[in-house]
Amino acid sequence: MELSKAHVSAAVLILSVxxxxxxDSYSAAVYEHNVILSEDTEIPVSPEDALALMNKNMDILExxxxxxxxxxxxxIVTPEDGIYxxxxxxxxxxxxxxxxxxxxxxxxxxxxxxxxxxxxxxERFSCMARNNSIYVVANIGDKKSCNSSDxxxxxxxxxxxxxxxxxxxxxxxxARYHKYNLFRGETQFNFPKEPETVTxxxxxGKFGIFTCFDxxxxxxxxxxxxxxxxxxxxxxxxxxxxxxxxxxxxxHSAWAMGMGVNLLSANTHNVGLAMTGSGxxxxxxxxxxxxxxxxxxxxxxxxxxxxxxxxxxxxxxAVNWSSYATSIKKFPEEKNTFTGAVRRDxxxxxxxxxxxxxxxxxxxxxxxxxxxxxxxxxxxxxxxxGAFDGLHGSLIxxxxxxxxxxxxxxxxxxxxxxxxxxxxxxxxxxxxxGTFGTNYVFPEVLYSGVHLAPGEFEVLRDGRLKSKHxxxxxxxxxxxxxxxxxKDPPHPLRTSP
Length: 497
Known about the structure:
- The chain has seven helices and 24 strands.
- It has helices at residues 2-21, 47-70, 90-93, 120-132, 218-227, 248-259, 323-327; strands spanning 25-32, 75-77, 135-145, 158-167, 173-178, 199-202, 205-209, 232-237, 262-267, 278-282, 285-290, 299-306, 338-342, 345-351, 356-363, 366-374, 383-392, 398-407, 427-434, 441-447, 451-452, 457-459, 465-467, 475-483.
- The N and C termini lie far apart (61 Å).
């Protein structure tokens, strides 16, 4: 009986210690890195030359990690492709890869580097974490040997994966994630056979992780948030900005708001490829973000955020995205509509011909409603209300439903939908809604110069995206970006090698 009491007392003590160690908030860091690239990504180099290039990039990342730790950050995220770059052939990427074990092996590479096959990259990242007492998230390549007993084994006898790793503050390999949704140019890597939903617990919340293109798909992104209920998503990315809806800071901030989760987004930086845009995003909007198309400099962002955002009194209430748009008396649908292309997607547009008004534009099952008033419309600028309901993409197709108020590139209506970064017209108010067939809708407001609008708009429970007051800057776009995952066709490339 006494032994039982002792066990109970010990359990209570352990629980008390764990509760005392739990943090309501924490400091997070992301680093946007201008990657030092290989001169030739088509010809394989020696393992020594590959490691030399990776060490050059890790030298820079280590400086950012040390500075983040010095400023009190608990965790730092570094970019996808951050140690060697991109656009390799399958053979050329191989010298850069390491065999990354399952984290269940309970391994600290920094203190036990010879336990498995040589892994100097894992050892170095592990030591960065351990020596600075900070969680480190990095993107490296994983290789896994296979043979003819596996009918899916590639002809060269190995799988190659785009991989994220997480080391805890003691340098232990805590998590490993193989990117599931490869972008069309990532032919150097294999698709995992099944999507991986990788989560882990820390004293400052429950974390999940995925990579770049994954954010546009149901698996694993939605599963991590909606089913596994992570507090924060770690997001290494190599994101090429695409206006008007898919600049990095614009969409990643909107995704965090729409999903009700923290998102730590670290992008690569390459002005020539339009790669920039990193941030620390929350359900309430961005806390810190960086977008720079002028310089070649990297950038470290650090901010304090809630460990459990869903417990915050400001946590957004659930939204019925079609409630308002389906319940109101329909505005007269515009007769003078026209079609225009946003890249390859054919939108139905209607010009906002007056300084204020009510408009409705429909395409297929989606009707978009807009109420607006401009402050002082520039005569040299044209704005339109647009709707798109269909499949996006040339090879990998996925279903979008989009309602958007956007500025055209010129007064020529044929320019509507083309990328534009500057505007002059401010709005006194706007209210945008749509008859969405999905609960996954992401609210975007983008100002002139590709600036976000934190605190200047709100999403009502009935699905309206509304301004809180007059816009502080000229407006580029107001968008409700819906993803209808159920209508996505089968993936054409995710087949056995």
